[in-house]
Amino acid sequence: MRATFMFGAGDVRVIEVPDPRIEAPTDAVIRVVRGCICGSDLHPFHSMPASETGRHMGHEAIGVVEEIGSEVRTLTKGDFVIVPFGIQDNTCVFCREGFPTSCVHGSWLSGGQGEALRLAQADGTAVKVPGVDPDTADDALLASLLTLSDVYLTGWHAAHMGRVAPGKTVTVIGDGAVGLSAVLSAREKGAERIILMGRHASRTTLGREWGATDVVSARGAEGIAEVMELTGGEGSHVVLEAVGHMPAYEQSYGVVRPGGVISRVGVPQYEDAPVGFGSLFGKNVTLTGGPAPVRAYIEAAIPEVLEGRIEPGRVFDMTVGLDGVPAGYAAMDAREALKVMIDPRA
Amino acid sequence: MRATFMFGAGDVRVIEVPDPRIEAPTDAVIRVVRGCICGSDLHPFHSMPASETGRHMGHEAIGVVEEIGSEVRTLTKGDFVIVPFGIQDNTCVFCREGFPTSCVHGSWLSGGQGEALRLAQADGTAVKVPGVDPDTADDALLASLLTLSDVYLTGWHAAHMGRVAPGKTVTVIGDGAVGLSAVLSAREKGAERIILMGRHASRTTLGREWGATDVVSARGAEGIAEVMELTGGEGSHVVLEAVGHMPAYEQSYGVVRPGGVISRVGVPQYEDAPVGFGSLFGKNVTLTGGPAPVRAYIEAAIPEVLEGRIEPGRVFDMTVGLDGVPAGYAAMDAREALKVMIDPRA
Asked: Which residues form the Alcohol dehydrogenase-like C-terminal domain (chains A, B) (predicted)?
């Protein structure tokens, strides 16, 4: 079968590989109905050292169960499932506490950008979507279900950890697919005001449709000043940081108000950052966030999508077949595409 | 009158100064009944550059209102009050949101280590203690009331921001007066297990009386390993960091469990610290805390003290008159005293 591998910075290829098979009794094999390219895939796309074996790409997928291991209890061949980017048993202490991304049997999904994938901890990871036939469902519905494997629920995680609630002013930093998902999530959680910091008109337009009340295109000190002016000099109760680079972190503590929360879901491309009296401590700012424990949120989100209350799949503005995956990476990297969906049978 | 000034590292003197007087209509003059030396006073005691004018010391006090400005409405001459270390109007937006330490009219108290002090924003800052005559009250009660100006409620702030609750495992880093106050606060909030990291037997003994279920005297990697073993390899739901130095921060993220909270009240003696994938982000750790908004907690704490449910004043193990203040600094610096109370009339 065909799958996407990255062999180094800028070097993405779709190659022929052996079909995935059951390796452990808790595995399943999933035929991929839709996969996609993640903003976080662009980090290795910029910096990965050359590798002969390559990295098996794709950590977001919806698909159909093709085969199950002997210990899989909750899935049956033919089930249509969402496969989140984090693998978990969904029973360990950290899973029960709501953080399956730290599961004691956890790992990260790979293979979502191919025809099929081997899924470890299948019972704990795959979530069945009731009443949907992926072969006849419309593309928009599939796109929205696909976002529950990562991007929409990563935005949701930001809002959840940031304790977004009615009456709050929320600033979202980043107009990528996660940032826009954070806007939608903040609206779902009843934020009073949502300021979106981003400079791509096509994206901020969707952000406004999803609930952004203000858009600030300036960055750095100028962007901070604009947000402070919009909030009457008080700053934002909650900042949802969906970028991961240091300037976004600096903007975060620049616009957060005393006692406020910075919730990060952009994977930090730094280890050390300011947290002392002059940044977080002096104004009692809370810093939170991390890899989204998507599995903990999927069940509640499925009816939101199936009943049409949210359409998070609108972040996809380009669809490719497997042949088009390298071009999809290039388009996202050039910001010509917001987020690229992959239909392996297209 | 006499007051304490610091003129440089290690140079604390009690000198004659003009009596405080009303300078703004919102001021009051407070006769100090008890003041004390704060662990945070030791930072300038180690590092303050020499100064001819000196720094007026003392940010914790209980006292009696001697004089009020023309706009003071809630205080009367003769009222016995607690004066927290943060000055606030207690009406601005940040005060209403629970963070009076960020009050738009805020500043920090000084003069608590003298015979009297000028209190700005007197209505917003001083809290009356009903039914107590400071001239006849016993020393233990005065000591406990004095802790509501800073140290006990700083420990409380750590526990509050850390969301300590029944069923939680809490690790307290630091066996100083704030750390011990954090232990007591964690017990008050129903923590299931409280691990105190500290190495001074006289202090950890009080920590055990106040609810510590385990004491770990080792530090660094060894201390982290002991806490991890005590928690079955899982780590602590909440870490209350009451030191402020980088090794304590490193211990904090070493012992916190996935999805846990590090709540800092030790004033950070660093600005940058690890917050990336390898420290906080990867395991969804929340970092919170800051200067305690003591004013927001005093009213609720007064009956706890008056009715004898808590005795936070037990952190004081040395009392001096004004002549003894320099020796009090030296004793705290040498860790011969846990916390030093000042009775200006002794």
From this structure: 177-290
Q: B interface mutation test: which of A286, A294, A297 has the most B CBs within 10 A? A: A286
| Contacts of residue B65, Cβ cutoff 8 Å, sequence gap at least 6 | B28, B29, B30, B75, B76, B77, B78, B79, B81, B122, B126
Find where tokens 């660093």 sit. B270
The closest of A135, A287, A125, A291 to B283, measured between CA atoms, is A291
Query: A93, A102, A261: best mutation site toward chain B, by most B Cβ within 10 Å?
Result: A102
Cβ contacts (< 8 Å) between A97 and chain B: which residues? 258-259
The number of residues in chain A equals 346
**How does DSSP classify residue A137?**
S
Which positions in chain A touch B273 (Cβ < 8 Å)? 272-273, 275-276
CB atoms within 10 A of CB A44: 17
Nearest C-alpha in A relative to B274? A272
DSSP string covering A214-260: EEE---HHHHHHHHHHHTTTS-EEEEEE-S-SHHHHHHHHHHEEEEE
Question: Rounded CA gap, B182 and B175, in Å?
Answer: 9
A267 contacts in B (CB within 8 Å)?
277, 281
Residues of chain B with C-beta less than 8 angstroms from the C-beta of A293 = 284
Query: Which of A93, A274, A282 lies closest to B290 in CB terms?
Result: A282
B270 contacts on A by Cβ (under 8 Å): 276
CB nearest to A102's CB, from B259, B271, B272:
B259
Q: Is B270 in contact with A278 (Cβ distance < 8 A)? A: no
CB contact under 8 A, B271 and A286: no
Instruction: Give the three-class secondary structure for A104.
Output: coil
CA-angle at A45, arms to A42 and A46, nearest 5°: 95
Distance in angstroms between the alpha carbons of the first and the last residue of chain B? 15
Return the H-helix or E-strand segment holding A303.
helix A295-306
Residue A228, min C-alpha distance to chain B (Å):
15
Torsion angle defined by CA atoms of residues A172, A177, A181 and A183, in that order, rounded to the nearest 10 degrees: 30
B29 pairs with which residues across the strands? B67, B118
Query: CB A290 to CB B278 under 8 A?
Result: no
Question: B254-290: string of b/e by CB count within 10 Å (b at 16+)?
Answer: bbbbbbbbbbbbbbbbeeebbbbbebbbbbbbbbbbb
* pLDDT digit string (tens) for chain A, length 346 residues: 999 999 999 999 999 999 999 999 999 999 999 999 999 999 999 999 999 999 999 999 999 999 999 999 999 999 999 999 999 999 999 999 999 999 999 999 999 999 999 999 999 999 999 999 999 999 999 999 999 999 999 999 999 999 999 999 999 999 999 999 999 999 999 999 999 999 999 999 999 999 999 999 999 999 999 999 999 999 999 999 999 999 999 999 999 999 999 999 999 999 999 999 999 999 999 999 999 999 999 999 999 999 999 999 999 999 999 999 999 999 999 999 999 999 999 8
CA–CA gap between residue A326 and residue A41 (Å, rounded): 12
Q: Is B52 exposed, middle or buried (0-12, 13-18, 19+ CB in 10 A)?
A: exposed
Question: Of the candidates B205, B200, B260, which has an alpha carbon nearest to the alpha carbon of residue B227?
Answer: B260
Domains, chain A, with CATH or none: 2-150+293-342 (3.90.180.10), 152-289 (3.40.50.720)
Which of A102, A279, A283 shows the shortest C-beta gap to B271?
A: A279
